[in-house]
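Troubleshooting entry. Yesterday's outputs looked truncated, so today I'm pasting the complete records for two proteins to confirm everything comes through intact. If either block looks cut off, that's the bug. Protein one:
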Amino acid sequence: MTYNEQAQSISAPPDVPVVDMFSSFAPVGELQDDSSSLTDYLEVNFGNATPDSNTSLFGMQSKGLVERFTRNRAITDQWHYILIIIYVSMILLGAVGNILVVMAVVRKPIMRTARNLFILNLAISDLLLCVITMPITLLEILSKYWPFGMIEVLCKLVAMLQAVSIFVSTISITAIAFDRYQLIVYPTRESLQFGGVIGILAGIWIFAVLLASPLFIYKRLEQAEIPPLLQELGIHEVCFCVEDWPVSNGRFYYSIFSACVQYLVPIVIVSGAYFGIYRKLRSRTAVVAMQTPQRKAERGRRMQRTNCLLITIAMIFGISWMPLNVYNLYADMRSPVAVTERMLVVYAFCHMLGMSSACTNPLLYGWLNDNFRSGQTRRRRKHAEISKGDLKLLPNNNGVGLRSVITESIALTENPISTEVTTLTAVN
């Protein structure tokens, strides 16, 4: 979201959008239930105040709004402190969880597998969401105008960094889902090595920077002209970080493109990949098992837990990011409009719901991952242990040529789904 409502009252072009999940948000707007005018307020409190055309800066017409403007407050104190408490709690929770995941992978050699690099990359991007995106967005929501001074490069970098961290996080989740699908559904294919994973991760970051680059290009800092009466209140400098797109509706087109890349395409791939894994695990007809009832029951429980985890991951991703994308598209379609306190609060909760993924990802991809968790407490065996009574070799046309591919038990940390998922494929 941007400071466009204020800026439009100065000199911003009419097509500058009001809201955006990736750009700097400067909430301002009139509270419709406040009736006393700025002129009356100044006349009462400053005997020498003279009404003129400058006494209704940005359309503010109330004592409360003047007070918030001098304090750079966009919302009432009640919501101000509620949002601070919720955001700070999420920042701390997400930061601690992702730092623990990063430390687990970096500090322990047994955790430094090729596939754990995907989880490490996700944790780093989510950590950026916690320490950069969430604090900056909170400050922007609470402020009436740009809170970071006159340095224009900050206006550009802040918006771009916010976008990059979001893109990297969601694309990393998509890459993890696709890699799991390849490993489970096509277990005989050559596994990803360190070089391949590093190349993919580098591509993710480069792609994210390219996707976010329009924000760096089209963001600019705009300084407002302060009326004399407000200068008497100590307001000498007001800036707005706005977007100035070269084409009409450029902001709206970029929002549609961003929603597709950041949400629609990832949710389709993630859902499709995990549904494919679910079907594969249910149709393991090639497995011939000679199991006791107890082992069958245990395997069934593990399978059920795996399926529940897959469904939970897809649902959390879809639910957490949908409100923010819908809100941004809706706001862009109807901009420019006056930004009210209600809109700010709704946006804040939509944004917090999206950012909640940075808090849940360490649980879903780290500590609820049997392989990841097991790697914290015991040495990984290089090869799977298969119970003697668990599998039976079957002859093929050329004799006994059955190759067993253990998709989950080969390496405790190689594959991020529950252990004991065994697939047998015949080879000639």
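Protein two, checking that the full record survives here as well:
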Amino acid sequence: MEGIISECLGLPPDFLPNYKNDQSRDVLLGLHYFPATEDENLGKPAHEDHGCFTIVYQDEVGGLQVHKDGQWIPIAPSKDTLVVNIGDVILIKTLRTSLRVKRIKENIMASFDIPTIDVSPFFRWNQGNEEGKKKGMEKMREACVDYGFFQIANHGIPLDLLAELWIHV
């Protein structure tokens, strides 16, 4: 994933893997959130992801929101896709984005479709699909710059393995 994102941002494919090659900041978490009750609303407060990227596999309940242009936008779960959040490291190091820490007070809800990217053209078994790869790279770059989020479809992870994930979390 790091190599694909590096290429999509116009960087050498080994940029992100080499940038953090000591693996000292890699974290793998399996979190299971229980649905809110009528009396309370449980969840993680507004925050930024400080690493390179965060991959989220949502269940059908959802609850993930993105803060964009002053509005909270719910990300509807999409079956068999992974949501990729572009973290501060990529924004600062590759997009040269100046991040300012600000307190988020708005509670405005909006709606939009998060960009979904078919990554199958990037796999070895699909070599020769350069047009599909080029389109996917451009769409991923636009999503990184414009949204900081995208969904991955046809990610190559066996669906039975993803289903098993929910059993163990």
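Both blocks look complete. Sanity check on protein two: The longest strand covers residues 82-86.
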